[in-house]
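Annex B. Sample input.
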Amino acid sequence: MMRTDDESGRRAGGGRAGGLRVDAQRNLRHVLSAARDVFGEQGYGAPMEEVARRARVGVGTVYRRFPNKEALVRYIAEEQTRWLTERAAEALAVASAGEPWRGLEGFVRGSAASGSGRLLPPELWWLAPAEERGAERVPRQRSWERAGDGAGGAEGAVESGPGAEGAPGGEGPAGHPGGERRGAAELLGAVGQLVERARSAGELRADVTVADVMLVIAAAPPRLADQQRQEDAAERLLEVLLRGLRPGT
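Annex B, continued. Sample output.
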């Protein structure tokens, strides 16, 4: 499971003593849950108004928690990056115990099922090829600059993180400038170890890269009205993609 709404709410509230009012905590949980759903379905270009509509709150409530779209995008992207890094570390423990393919496959399946792969920061896709060369690529433009909307997008962004009540302030992702790149590099490093272990064991195609694995976990089946068909399509897509990672395919 991804981070629970309660955990996200505490982190987004900055962990202050006393925290937010009960109703404010509830609204914040709804906003974070809606943001994951909306951005997962539509990408980080989705408007804040859609997040508010899905959360069943006014858009002003969203901006009270996150003073601009950059802050919300940064929070969600880094939250999911941390979650995936933890899952990659767990998978590495399995791989280190002599089951490299089971470790990699478990990471891919869990990541795809959670939807976290679709919420990773675009910076990760620029860094992935550079990580495999052992170098670091400097992103030309931040994801939230591209995703910013007219109501406090990139132009109104604060580099040191949002300061509104209930937003991620001195603690959490928005409070650490550059943390998105460090987090992405840490995740890619862990996935790189999984790839290398599976490749060395002859259980992964020699030409499969870290970027390929990240593309697999970010892949999404078509949206279907029938939930069972949606789940079946997702499982089939994942099976096809995993089979393509194996040697001899």
